[in-house]
Amino acid sequence: MMGMIALIYGSVQRLGLSRRLRHVLLGLAFGFGASVQMMQSIAVAPGVIVDSRALFIGFAGAFLGPLGATVALMVSLLLRISLVSTAMPALAAGSMAASALMGSLWPVLRRRLGLGHFTGLVLLAVMISLPLVLLAWLPVGRTDSLEVLAAILVLLNLTGALVFGTFLQRERAAAQRERTLLTETQTDPLTGVLNRRSFERRFAEADSLARSRGTALMIVDIDHFKRVNDIHGHEAGDHVLRAMAERLRRAVRPGDSVIRLGGEEFAVLMPDVDAPEAGRAAERLQRMLTMSCRIGDLTRVDVTVSIGATHLPPGRVDLGEASRTADGALYRAKREGRARSIFEACA
């Protein structure tokens, strides 16, 4: 079960999903693992059962945070109530909640204590095992066998934490490496925005939106950028490019895409807009990108942009045709004096 959950963990972490959605899905998986452990429980007294569910719930908190731990806890509680409705539900719920809390606190404690891989997992096992001390205060007759069982469960938690934690950390490290590599292949290293490789894929994603009104494509070109490099140097030019990329990111909507095409040229893809809205957005963007960049302590460079914009009706225009139309509009904007936006509809 541990190996299967670890593989699921690695697979989901590699998906291009938001962090929140990944943690919800993985919380369901960890909750399923805890539920399976409940089906392999041991009765230690009338109305009292023990199992290793705490390991999965605690690790959900440790590796998924409070959101994943909450999801795993809810799945486990629902199954616990449905399976053994008469077996001390309040105590069971409290024990599982304590495991989730201990797991969620573990990353903070590990960072503050500066613990490594092995010692960190030992700490996690100890924290997850703390709810087992409740066995000493259970309203049942205390016996030597009950205390021995508690010690055995702690030892099993320690062993399981080392094995399970090693699996999970290995999968997380591999997923992080793959995400980093993917980001590097899709991101412009100078500005941090998407690079040209991402252009076609982002256009296809925007065009495929259900009930989309179409996609706006804008080509943004920094006016007289060569003059900045010639007068102030290439380092100043790089500073202007980074400032422009940051201003673009803040100026567009969360679902829009900012792409550096090369040199001083950027593209903006805005999904689900109609043609009049695309024209207004280009005018608004042109005004917002007019700025003054500080270079060093004393020098300021005034920056303006020219924008060529077009609108792509859903499913009827390919990216090549749209790019040519936007490039033609950009050429007109520069020919007419720069520092302006021109909108041309695709034929």
From TrEMBL:
Residue stretches spanning the membrane: 57-79, 91-109, 115-136, 148-168
Protein topology in the membrane: Multi-pass membrane protein
Keyword line: Cell membrane, Membrane, Transmembrane, Transmembrane helix
Keyword Membrane: yes
Sequence ranges assigned to domain GGDEF in this UniProt record: 213-346
InterPro entries: Diguanylate_Cyclase, GGDEF_dom, Nucleotide_cyclase, Rev_trsase/Diguanyl_cyclase, Sig_transdc_His_kinase_LytS_TM
SMART domains (UniProt xref): GGDEF
Catalyzed reaction equations: 2 GTP = 3',3'-c-di-GMP + 2 diphosphate
One GO term (biological process): negative regulation of bacterial-type flagellum-dependent cell motility
Main location: membrane
SUPFAM superfamilies listed in its UniProt record: Nucleotide cyclase (SSF55073)
Pfam families (UniProt xref): 5TM-5TMR_LYT, GGDEF
A GO molecular-function annotation: phosphorelay sensor kinase activity
GO cellular component annotations of the record: plasma membrane
Record's subcellular location: Cell membrane
PANTHER family in alphabetical order: DIGUANYLATE CYCLASE DGCM-RELATED, REGULATORY COMPONENTS OF SENSORY TRANSDUCTION SYSTEM
Protein name per the record: diguanylate cyclase
Source organism of the structure: Cereibacter sphaeroides (strain ATCC 17023 / DSM 158 / JCM 6121 / CCUG 31486 / LMG 2827 / NBRC 12203 / NCIMB 8253 / ATH 2.4.1.)
